[in-house]
Every structure is written in C-alpha cells, then in structure tokens.
Specification:
The chain is of the alpha+beta class. The chain contains three helices and four strands, in the order αααββββ. It has helices at about 1-10, 15-20, 30-35, and strands spanning about 40-50, 55-65, 70-85, 85-95. It has a four-stranded antiparallel sheet with strand order 1-2-3-4. The structure holds zinc ion.
Length: about 120
C-alpha cells in the first residue's frame, strides 16, 4: 500500500499497473490524468490486517490537493490485496466519503501546523 502511494507520488504508472490485479486495471493514460491534477499531501493508514496467507486489506486516507481547483480532498478507501509469489497486488477498493479537518486541527500532511495555516490555507 505504502509502495503504491509512493508510486502515485513519483508518478510511476508502470509500477501501479504491475501491482494491480483486476479486470479494470487503469491504463497509463488514465493514470497520467490523475497525476496531472493531483498534488499528494499525506498518507494516513487507518488500519490494516492480513486475513490469510494470501489476502489482506488496508484502510487509508490519501490526502491531496486538486491542482485545478486548489481544493484539499482525500481518497478514503478500504483496499483489498492478494499475494502472489511474494508480491502483494491491489485488487479492488471500497471508497468512503471523507470529511476535511476543521481549520484548527492538525494538517493532513503531518507538518505539525494547523490545517488553516498549512495545506488548508
Ligand atoms: Zn499541510
């Protein structure tokens, strides 16, 4: 999960496609669209568990700023992973609706500053 988030940050569509095992694997072009409009702020792992030798899930919030609107938002998702030959693959995710922190709460990027003085400014 963390390695996939890093890959999103460094815009590595090859890695993202290679670690995605499902019917609807995004194309490099679709990922490029996402990259161009997204500035990643921080990754918050809410919880995770391994259900068996070869399956597990991660609940996370990936905070980002939309480059066009300048708005802060997050993907809050429970992602399912399967292991195949020592490598974990993302299969699918269930997304939830996320609430922004209030202005005086700590910033989503872990800067230690208040949200209103940092990414929420
Ligand atoms: Zn911030």
């Amino acid at each position: 999960m963390r390695s996939r988030f890093s890959a999103f940050c460094r815009r590595d569509s090859e890695y993202l496609i290679a670690t995605h095992k499902h019917l609807q694997v995004p194309s490099a072009e679709e990922l490029q669209q996402v990259f161009e409009h997204t500035q990643w702020l921080g990754l918050e792992i809410v919880s995770s568990a391994q259900d068996s030798d070869s399956t597990g899930w991660v609940e996370f919030k990936a905070w980002f700023k939309d480059s066009d609107s300048g708005k802060v938002d997050a993907i809050w998702e429970v992602s399912q992973f399967v292991r195949h030959n020592q490598q974990w693959y993302y299969t699918q995710g269930q997304q939830r609706k996320v609430n922004l922190p209030s202005r005086n709460e700590p910033c989503v990027c872990f800067s230690g500053k208040k949200f209103k003085k940092c990414c929420g400014a």
